[in-house]
Amino acid sequence: MLRGQFLPATSKVSLAYRTLRYYRANHSLLAWRRLLAFGYHRMLRRPVPSFIDIATTYRCQCRCVHCSADGHKKAGRQEMETEEIKSIIEQAKRLGTLEVVFSGGEPLLRRDAIELVRFAHDIGMITRLNTNGLLLDRRRVAELKKAGLTLCAVSLDDCDPQVHDTLRGVPGTYEKALEGIRRLRESHVLSQLLVYASKNSLPSGLDRLIALGKKLGVFTMFVFFPIASGRWEFAFDQVLNAEERARVRKFQDLTFVYSELPTERSLCVHLNKLILYVTAYGEATPCPVARYVIGDIRSHSLADLWHRYCAQLKLEFRDDCPLNNARDREVFRDSIETFARDYRLWLEKSSGAE
What's the pLDDT score for residue 14? Predict the structure, then answer.
């Protein structure tokens, strides 16, 4: 197996492979047309988000020690209603976005989870759902498949059930996750392992997780670098150093293991202008780990917000997330806050002109 060699070329081949499998599994000609349009826009250097990540809820059965979503929670705020989320998906579609990621919290705790997946699929979007696996019983998996779910990503922190359950804060989570993955495979729904490369898991822990993923028959495995955000806010001691990141990258291959930052020269998907994250309250932030608010999508145009933000986004932090370095974090935060202030002023002037 090719691991850690020719990474720039390898990552492009891996992306092409995954993309073709997603669209083949999606069974939508409309989605294929949207993919061609997306490629055309990117060729002309027009910023179009590849995917929009929507946190449908911050409710969750687990209390993971590394949870980044915890940083977005705001006491007393009402989470978005079904029609508000559908409106955001529709706006993303008009913008040219290819994929909707339903995340959380645990998105399957929402009663309208299946309805939202179906809505996104029916308008030609690739659909992905990130879950802890606790609710992936046979009925729910069958409903997700019928609704048109393209990929179901299940979090798995360790091959040792006790370690995984301890990190998740709920006994039995490990076995439930594996049962859910098996049901996804039985129903022919593409599945993915979401794992993070902790200092403790290098290197043997990742090797065992890769072997387990292949045994379970999952489609791919996505490896996160630890981020100093959420419950790990300012936990710089958990961050991987350059040597440790290089060790993680050696696990990458053409078809199975990949990460967001495949090389030390890589920009994250946010700085590549490929993602927009929406909190459960309708606020747009750069990505799921950054809690700095760009604007409110429920009350303002997604297209206006996106294009104005991309025009101002000039940052180039490579190799690791800027949140993992105190100085880079400050520059990143100041950039977002400056844009948010300018955007509010523009909205006020626009409203006054009307």
Answer: 81
Q: What would you report as the CA-atom Rg of the chain, rounded to the nearest whole angstrom?
A: 19
Mean of pLDDT over the chain: 92
Return d(Cα 73, Cα 66) in angstroms, integer.
15
pLDDT computed for residue 204 by the predictor:
87
Residue 299's pLDDT is 78
Residue 4 confidence (pLDDT):
41
- State the Cα–Cα distance between residues 199 and 240, nearest whole angstrom: 7
Dist CA 100 CA 102 (whole Å): 6
Per-residue pLDDT, averaged over 51-61, amounts to 97
In this predicted structure, what is the pLDDT of residue 274? 92
- Secondary structure in 3-state letters for the chain: CCCCCCHHHHHHHHHHHHHHHHHHHHCCHHHHHHHHHHHHHHHCCCCCCCEEEEECCCCCCCCCCCCCHHHHCCCCCCCCCHHHHHHHHHHHHHHCCCEEEEECCCHHHCCCHHHHHHHHHHCCCEEEEEECCCCCCHHHHHHHHHHCCCEEEEECCCCCHHHHHHHHCCCCHHHHHHHHHHHHHHCCCEEEEEEECCHHHCCHHHHHHHHHHHHHCCCEEEEECCCCCHHHCCCHHHCCCHHHHHHHHCCCCCCCEEECCCCCCCECCCCCCCEEEECCCCEEECECCECCCCEECCCCCHHHHHHHHHHHCCCCCECCCHHHCHHHHHHHHHHHHHHHHHHHHHHHHHHHHC
> From CA 282, how far away is CA 85, in angstroms rounded?
8
- Token pair recorded at residue 129: 């759902």
**By C-alpha distance, which of 45, 116, 50, 46 is closest to 79?**
116
Q: What's the pLDDT score for residue 298?
A: 82
Least confidently predicted of 9-13, 89-93, 127-131? 9-13
Residue 142 near residue 101, CB atoms below 8 Å: no
> What average pLDDT does range 47-71 have in this prediction?
94
- Is pLDDT at 352 greater than 80 in this prediction? no
